Amino acid sequence: AEGVDMGFSKNVLSGAAVAAAFALSATVVPMATAAGNSSATGGGTTEEAGATSTFVFNAVRGKNGNVTGHLVYHVRGWPVTIMMDLDCLIVEGNTAKMSGVVTQVSEEYPGLIFVGQDATFMVEDNGQGANAGPDMFSDLFLEPGASCDDPRLGTDPFVPYLPVRGNIQVR
């Protein structure tokens, strides 16, 4: 089956859920980073599908090589929210490729967005401070077998292109 480019997600988030996810990112990633493990974490908003989308994610590679993390992605243009467990992370310079499995959606779209669907996405960390360009977020690509080691990631259209109002850190 051909993959689906999803510049959006499903599941209505409360402010408390987003705050909790940001707090989790802030506490988990620094510990892993201090140990020298690769990680990607962030959150913010971006414009897509004619509305503001909100996302928060974290992914950490443990000392044993296993990756743990989560993504919560709310696209108001549909509206839909997707929650994922992340199990793959590849850090290359200032970019991170992540993938995992959809664990919850606010509304399933059969054959497109459903619990158990594989998905992958990329982010780009463009630094900190007033002189740094905006961090970037890609669409969410949903397809069977989607993985962060897919060689298409990093090639058009599988690139981070959505400017983020927020912060992404790749280490």
Produce a short descriptive summary.
The protein contains 1 helix and 11 strands. The chain has 171 residues and is mainly beta.
Give the total of beta strands: 11
Low-confidence stretches: 1-34
Q: What is the N-to-C order of secondary-structure elements (H for helix, E for strand)?
A: EHEEEEEEEEEE
Helix content: 10-25%
How would you describe the shape?
Answer: globular
How many H/I helical runs?
1
Features of the shown structure:
mainly beta; 171 residues; 11-stranded antiparallel β-sheet; single chain
Set out the fold topology.
Blueprint: E1 4-6, H1 15-34, E2 39-48, E3 51-61, E4 67-75, E5 80-92, E6 95-105, E7 118-124, E8 136-137, E9 140-142, E10 162-163, E11 165-170
Antiparallel strand pairs: 1-9, 2-3, 2-11, 3-4, 4-5, 5-6, 6-7, 7-8, 7-9, 8-10
Molecular structure report:
The chain has 171 residues and is mainly β. 12% of the residues lie in helices and 45% in strands. The protein has 1 helix and 11 strands. Strands 1, 2, 3, 4, 5, 6, 7, 8, 9, 10 and 11 form an 11-stranded antiparallel sheet that branches. A hairpin with a 4-residue loop joins strand 4 and strand 5. The longest helix has 20 residues, at 15-34. The chain is globular and about 40 Å long. Residues 1-34 have low confidence and may be disordered.
